[in-house]
Design a protein that fits this description.
- This protein is mainly α.
- Helices cover about 60% and strands about 5% of the residues.
- Strands 2-1-3-5-4 form a 5-stranded mixed sheet.
- Helix 17 (about 425-430) links the parallel strand 1 and strand 2 (about 435).
- Helix 2 (about 50-65) runs parallel beside helix 17, helix 5 runs antiparallel to helix 15 (about 345-360) and helix 6 (about 155-165) runs parallel beside helix 16.
- The longest helix is centred in the last third of the chain and has 47 residues, at about 365-410.
- The radius of gyration is 24 Å and the shape is globular.
- The N and C termini lie far apart (about 85 Å).
Length: about 525
Amino acid sequence: MHLKSFVKRNLAEGSLVFAGILILVTQFAVTKYFLNDGGADHTQIVGAPLDDTYIHCRYAENLRSGRGYTFNPEVNIDDSLYKMSSSKTVSADTSPLWVAMIAVGGIFSRHLDLIAILLSAFFYLLLAPAVFRICRFTYMLPYSWSVVGGIITMLCSRLIWSSASGMETTLACFLTLIIFHEHLKQRQLGGVMRLREGLFLALGIAVRPELMFLAFIVLMDWFIVAIRERRGFTALVKAKIFFLICVAPVYMIPYFENGGLIYHSSVVQGARFSFLPDIGYLFFVAKTLAASFSLPILFAFIAPLKEKKHKDIILLQTFGFGLLILLAFIAPQFRHHGRYFFEVFPILIILGIITISMLLEIKIRSKVVFYMQGLLILIALIGTTRGVLLAAESVTNINDQHLAVCSWIKENTGASDKLAVDDVGAIGYFTKRNVIDLTGLVSPEFFPLQNDQKQVWKQARKEGANVFIIYTRLNPSFYQYAKDSLDFVKEFRVRLPLVASADTVMSVFRIKQDLHAAR
């Protein structure tokens, strides 16, 4: 009996991984078709849908070469504009573990962008088997429903978009599942918090700062257990101390930068606390969840708060719904199709599968259940198609602007040129140059100046910028002030509907005296 169960489990998980590989291959083929349809393909084998991928790679490249956790090594920061230590550290990347993993991958290839994409694809392939295991062995759902849960996860449009993105999103989703698996298993066995759970929590925070919320939920749950059931208090203290030791390096990065514990990128992206939620953001969340075409996610919202058979689902609900609400108060981000809350997708799918299976516990024909499961998968396939197309469109956008401008820079600029740009990732990574970030992400001295674009221009000129690669509509006041001092050189347009860029046109300008001198 145990052998049969083992074979069935491995057959299901192996099939899910194989199907995931087919999706990745399909996505690669569709992306290549888009890239070769009317334009030049500037990617190295395969492209990324976000400029942020190349920010990770630039950090990994500098880390690997011993230059520290920074985007622009050996940059002198004006302390009068931005409080910095003498360290070169700039906390413009909130995923230090992901950066470290890419850097280690540099042992095998100098194409760190390819390493990042392979890593995100690898962890995407692990998501469906992880959901299957939690459904089957943690919540003891029927085998067929556990398989359906894995399939729906694999077909989820937003997770497919992330699958070959080179971003840390898929790893964050996987670690979320691992943490829940470890926690719920110990809770159901009447055990205590183990050191490995503290390690998983620290790793999760080192990948995505949103998982601090998950750490809070887990630690509070163990504290309640210790108080209510009078057990595991000593183990909890030991695990918590171990967790704090493991997570400390994550917060040492901003501490060495500015003496605080908040990453600079979080500040730039508007992290703040509001007493009122951002209602527009909640509508954006609802739209993004619906666009996944995963019906179990909708059923997750009607899951019972208390159910004797599945008493631990309240932990899934607290994280799945709580994170969405929390972000509306502290860090509402409308960028990147909602990737800042993608960790909730597998959790909500599990909740939905539990709810649907509970609703169908009444005696109905097995054929009806089979057809309903098939319907859920067919609807998810619509999302799969959209996810593949969305990824292809995003990669093409980045190719047509960011990667194309990198090729132009290599052919048309020299070592004496100083670049000032709005999007820094690909330009910094592929040109291997220090660049001025006009938005203040990797050039922190510019961030306090954002309310006065005249000062942004003056600071850029003070630092020697003579080539400006900007979106004229991103900061229109900057362009209006600077345009009389700039000569237009070239523009780069996207071929497809805008899905990933700050604007449809990226423009290159030189200051006028440079052009006149060149003539």
